[in-house]
Automatic annotation (TrEMBL):
This protein's record includes keyword Flavoprotein: yes
Stored InterPro entries: FAD-linked_oxidoreductase-like, PRODH_bac_arc, Proline_DH_dom, Proline_oxidase
Pathway per the UniProt entry: Amino-acid degradation; L-proline degradation into L-glutamate; L-glutamate from L-proline: step 1/2
Enzyme class (EC, first level): oxidoreductase
Protein name listed in UniProt: proline dehydrogenase
Catalyzed reaction equations: L-proline + a quinone = (S)-1-pyrroline-5-carboxylate + a quinol + H(+)
């Protein structure tokens, strides 16, 4: 049943008509629990509140699967606006973005042009930029773009997903670049040709790649809400004397906020991924797919009104 629901929401997450409708009608159905608002001003307020609690942030202007050049350029402009807001308001925040919002499905030239604009601005403001990882069909391209950009900029990192069979090898291959990587379980619907179908195997692979990347001496962001993985990381860094400034934990805005603050109190760097903007639909559907309790929360919200 859980798997069916997961598949259903992941299927809905790709629906273009619903994506357009959602943009037109604004944040609905409890999406504001996971999305900081539709404007940069609203996002800045949320980030200031999180920073006051000692939480670091990575801000994301929501958008994905863009299919025309003008929209891709506008998406890049929004990211630049977010970087300027970080600088002007002295926020403790990085930036995250998706390659399909920069024009990945249109042309490599367009993506590189937009990414260089963003990374130049980010460099000027001392802001680090993480390239999110999307579905498997875009994984190799995303890694290739990351490698090229990493040769030109030191303020860029990317994400690897524990559910993919290929990730262990990607960790090895990328080691030559000494990358700052965010490691996650993986949020898209993938076939068992390319991804572990069982959660148990994903979790084991997650632990394996965390260990590999940390022991390679690279900066590691462990992005999860899973206590077992968090405890595993804490034990690992203790055992190998890995300093607190070589890793951090990351969680999504609106998920386990008390646990986020607890990790800060324990002395760890805890970064919250704060999405904002009008294109909230696909992101929201993936959050619903992850956890049936999130669906119950949404249903309660709908029927209360
Ligand atoms: P999982 O969903 O398996 O949950 C494990 C356990 O965590 C649960 O059993 C429960 O104990 C606890 N838990 C989870 N949610 C809870 C809640 N609401 N309340 C209480 N307990 C809860 N994916 C991707 O493909 N590309 C990307 O670029 C990114 N980027 C990214 C950034 C950040 C900062 C995060 C945190 C995540 C991503 N992801 C991602 C998403 C990621 O791949 C994954 O889908 C989600 O993080 C959910 O997986 P978890 O590791 O949290 O474990």
């Amino acid at each position: 049943m859980e798997q069916l629901m997961r598949d259903f929401f992941l299927f809905l997450s790709k629906n273009k008509t619903l994506t357009k409708l959602a943009k037109r009608y604004g944040l609905r159905f409890g999406a504001s629990r996971f999305v900081a608002g539709e404007t940069i001003e609203q996002a800045v307020e949320v980030i200031q509140q999180l920073n006051r609690k000692g939480l670091a942030v990575t801000i994301d202007y929501l958008g994905e699967f863009v299919d025309n050049e003008q929209e891709a350029n506008e998406m890049a402009n929004h990211s630049i606006e977010a970087i300027r807001a970080i600088g002007e308001n002295k926020l403790n925040s990085q930036l995250s973005l998706k390659m399909t919002s920069m024009g990945l499905d249109i042309s490599d030239e367009l993506v590189m042009k937009n990414m260089r604009r963003i990374l130049d601005e980010a460099k000027a403001h001392g802001v680090f930029v993480t390239i999110d990882m999307e579905d498997y069909s875009r994984c190799q391209k995303t890694i290739d773009i990351f490698k090229q950009l990493k040769k030109e900029y030191d303020n860029v990192g990317t994400v690897l997903q524990a559910y993919l069979y290929r990730t262990e090898k990607d960790i090895e291959d990328l080691n030559a670049y000494h990358p700052n990587l965010r490691l996650v379980k993986g949020a898209y619907k993938e076939s068992q040709e390319v991804a572990f179908p069982d959660k148990k195997d994903v979790d084991e692979n997650f632990k394996k790649i965390i260990k590999m990347h940390l022991l390679n001496g690279n900066y590691t962001a462990v992005a999860t809400h899973d206590d077992e993985i968090i405890e595993y990381t804490k034990q690992l860094v203790k055992e190998y004397n890995i300093p607190n400034d070589q890793f951090e934990f990351q969680m999504l805005y609106g998920i386990r906020p008390e646990r986020q603050e607890q990790l800060v109190r324990e002395g760890y760097t805890m970064r919250v991924y704060v999405p904002y903007g009008t294109d909230w639909y696909g992101y929201f559907m993936r959050r619903l797919a992850e956890r049936p309790a999130n669906v119950a929360f949404v249903l309660k919200g709908i029927f209360k009104k």
